[in-house]
Write a structure and sequence with these properties.
mainly alpha, 9 helices, 78% helix, globular
Length: 209
């Protein structure tokens, strides 16, 4: 892969990573409610999910989603259901505590947050189709596809974590500001956004991906 091609991929990855979506909303809501450290656990999980999605694309399963209506619909429903589930949990959660009062996450909490990030990335068929369409455009046929795929995946995952760091840093200020009625309002609004993203995912079509 040429240096110019890699920089172009970096630019596209940064634009994609900084575009608000389920993963960004998860990072912001966790940072606001639980604090920056816990939010970054889910962000690391999301980066791991990105690896899963990229490997899936490289194995040709993205092409299967394009060809198989049943496989595409099943994954789409699973991803939508998980986003709606996150939205309902967010809606029903109590308002955030004051900044600095949340304890460090126990091991179970950490794994739960990590799993949230993985599932948000891995159950989104739009992400798999995105990698299926994008990665081949930057890979040269004479070089190892797995080596190039690993480089592109690491690049995209790094851009994802970078975008989450920026959003989490911004959300820390919001975390200190929320309380009382504003905290409830934030929970309801972010819960509604998760549900809206889930319902929007149900409208995704293979031809439009």
């Amino acid at each position: 892969m040429s240096t110019g091609g890699w920089w172009l991929f970096c630019t596209l990855s940064l634009i994609t990573a900084f575009t608000p979506g389920p993963a960004v909303l998860l990072a912001v809501s966790n940072a606001t409610v639980l604090g920056a450290r816990r939010a970054l656990i889910s962000s690391v999980g999301n980066a791991t999910g990105v690896f899963v999605v990229a490997v899936t694309a490289l194995l040709g399963l993205g092409a299967l989603l394009q060809a198989s209506s049943a496989a595409f619909t099943a994954l789409k429903i699973a991803g939508a259901a998980y986003l709606v589930y996150l939205g309902i949990r967010q809606w029903r959660s109590p308002p955030p505590f004051a900044a600095g009062t949340s304890p460090s996450p126990a091991n179970g909490d950490a794994w739960r947050l990590f799993g949230q990030g993985v599932l948000v990335a891995a159950t989104n068929p739009k992400s798999i189709l995105f990698f299926t369409a994008l990665l081949p455009q930057f890979m040269q046929p004479q070089a190892s596809p797995w080596r190039q795929g690993l480089l592109l995946t690491v690049t995209f995952a790094t851009c994802t974590v970078l975008s989450h760091l920026c959003y989490v840093a911004a959300a820390r200020r919001l975390h200190r500001w929320l309380g009382g009625a504003r905290g409830y309002l934030f929970q309801r609004a972010s819960g509604a956004l998760f549900i809206g993203l889930g319902l929007g995912l149900l409208r995704l079509r293979r031809q439009a991906a």
